[in-house]
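Quick check before the chapter quiz. The format below is the same one you will see on the exam, so make sure you can read both the input and the output lines.
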Amino acid sequence: MTAYTRLPYKLFNFSFTHPLWLNMLIKPKAAERACANLASQLRSSLDPEVILTIFKQSTRQYLPLCNLAFHADNCTLTAELSAPGNANLRFDLSDDGYALGQLECDLEQNLTMAQEVLLTQLAKVLVHPLRNALEYQKMKLLAFQDSLTGLANRNKFEHCFHQLAVSSYKKQMNFSLLIIDLDGFKRVNDKYGHQTGDFVLTHFAQLLLQFSSERAQIFRFAGDEFTILINDADKHSISCFAQEIRHALARHHSLARFKLSCSIGSAKFQCNDSLDSLFSRADKALFRAKRKGRNCAELSPCIELQM
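Here is the expected output.
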């Protein structure tokens, strides 16, 4: 005789012939198969949003789910299906005692007790893959983020350069590199100490972020040297962009007392450019700006590159 989990129910709206249910009873082996299938699907991704979407689609097969959201300290993930439902259920997710966050389920109607048990079982399957995905994304962010300023770092710069280079070849879109060096930063470090130096770097990074956009990506390259990759901009636009950065630094209320300025060198990506060749031309332009007395911008002329 087959054993079933006997639970009271109300507002039951699923077909009595549904493969997971027998009247108000959950078929234990069918529930196990549902959890096993979900576990198999969740192993396919390390993206938290994809993980939640897979969970949403799988759970929707068995439960009257409208929308789904996961809330943690530093993020909120959503997987929307339809308009808001008539009932809401929240419960905490934890993995081996580690508090992961809270799962919020927007439902068409209140769940039966049997349905709540099934949802709890499916959520337990979700926990470990979701934790792995969140930790992976955190490690990925740390690998691409400068710990002091919060800007993207050199690793991310190299990654983005290669993406833009491929896009340039395929779509014939141009982009340029700007290298920015803070004039007088060594003097600030020597006179006021490294904590003040960190203060200057952090505030200058925030200043540069004002110029960030879909076209312009900002990076801390090393020390007091910052880089910008700017997409689809001509020589005049690059020159204006560089001058705006210089003027913004001169007007910055927190940095004005240090009497800092910046020198900028830029170069446009050309066919057959490598990261080293593009960076070298921009760096030479920066050196010319320094030699001219600092606090200015120099653009590298386009040259015929050797094959």
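If your answer matched, good. The longest helix spans residues 113-144.
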